[in-house]
Amino acid sequence: MTKKITKREIETAYHEAGHAVVIWKLFGLPRIKKISIIKNKDYLGMVKTNKPKNYNPDIDTSPSTEIKIHYRIMESYAGVIAGKKATGKANHIGANEDYGHIADSILRVDGGFDNKLQRYLDKYLYRRTELLINQYWAEINAVAKELLKRKELKRNEFYNIVEKIFQIKLKKSKK
Description:
mainly alpha, 7% strand, 3 strands, globular, three-stranded antiparallel sheet, Methane Monooxygenase Hydroxylase, Chain G, domain 1, 6 helices
């Protein structure tokens, strides 16, 4: 007898798939170690990653670090946006750490001095993330469906899924 998949599991799978695909597009495949929807005492799911290279926003205030901060914000938004797109409503349960990353990162951009700039940047990066989620929805959908079947994907398994979708898109574009 097969266990019925709950709405929470579906939302979690899309949430984690959204994170993973956006990380892949912004930072590249080597950052991803594994993706899991196996619940533990702290998380409903997770994307285990390597820290971005040369990323130390407490010390380095260069433009390249600022771009990495923007990418980290987008990475954090991706889970909530993908979960919302999949289920039709925003579910913030399990997203506390994501929102913590966003708040901390927004403050790092200008030192917390300009609230108007922070609100603009927040809206801008949220919208950029929505566009990425829409552009790579086929990949997110495929990863989420596989997560619901297997509960966990390693880097190479994730890559095989997104590469397969890429090849399908490539064939369609040549027609």
